[in-house]
Structure to design on (250 residues):
């Protein structure tokens, strides 16, 4: 009974998609003026412009702001450094302080696919940079704890609902994945981690949010190195990692 009850909580807390007609009512200039000029809280943006969080609207809004397709830019850009990142992580696991990285890499020995490698590169990034991602990336047993409890304190991030008794650093069976803003699920039914990182980046841009402090350098790396948005403005920490990847021979 507990397992079914937990799953009902997950389903109950899902964010339903807004009426598709609201997408057509969005006016970019009006929406952008409110977000940039008035700087409303994310909850207010969600209430005023619910359709802004839909996938097609996120991509359209991002294209207007950055003049590029976020999904293509993110996935193509990520494909290049993935293997180098994993090798850099592997070298870092010699330090006793990088156990979390080792746990992530160990998951690839059980299931090594292109998608899993990309997921490991993304999830491992904050651990390599010595940041704690627990307030940004959380895992929730789809049959156990409630979603409200799992996303408590989350300002911006991804909530991954997994199934199965094993709770590895990278879950094998993802039941559902949700983007969270201010403890509220703004979009769910997401199952591909790399694509959903891109979606989260798009939401951060569209709602004009700051990167969460717990993963500030990780998101900056994704912006400036992976997506090549204003790469010349990279911080010393991100620039150093970028140079290390360029020098790393596979």
């Amino acid at each position: 009974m507990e397992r079914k009850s937990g799953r009902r909580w997950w389903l109950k807390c899902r964010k339903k998609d807004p009426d598709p007609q609201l997408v057509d009512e969005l006016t970019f200039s009006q929406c952008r003026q409110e977000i940039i000029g008035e700087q409303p809280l994310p909850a207010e943006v969600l209430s005023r412009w619910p359709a802004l969080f839909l996938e097609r609207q996120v991509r359209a809004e991002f294209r207007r702001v950055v003049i590029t397709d976020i999904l293509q830019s993110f996935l193509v850009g990520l494909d290049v450094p993935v293997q180098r990142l994993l090798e850099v992580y592997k070298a870092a696991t010699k330090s006793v302080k990088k156990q979390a990285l080792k746990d992530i890499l160990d998951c690839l020995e059980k299931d090594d696919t292109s998608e899993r490698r990309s997921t490991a590169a993304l999830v491992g990034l904050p651990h390599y940079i010595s940041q704690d991602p627990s307030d940004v990336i959380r895992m929730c047993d789809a049959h156990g704890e409630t979603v409200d409890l799992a996303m408590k304190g989350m300002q911006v991030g991804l909530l991954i609902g997994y199934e199965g008794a094993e709770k590895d650093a990278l879950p094998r069976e993802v039941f559902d994945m949700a983007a969270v803003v201010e403890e509220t699920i703004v979009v769910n039914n997401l199952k591909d981690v790399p694509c959903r990182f891109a979606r989260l980046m798009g939401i951060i841009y569209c709602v004009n949010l700051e990167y969460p402090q717990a993963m500030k350098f990780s998101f900056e790396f994704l912006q400036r190195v992976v997506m090549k948005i204003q790469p010349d403005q990279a911080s010393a920490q991100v620039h150093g990692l970028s140079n290390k990847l360029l020098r790393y021979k596979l």
User: Anything to note?
Assistant: The chain has one domain: 2-78+132-235. The chain has 13 helices and four strands. The beta strands are 137-141, 156-163, 173-181, 184-187. Residues 208 and 232 are 21 Å apart (CA to CA).
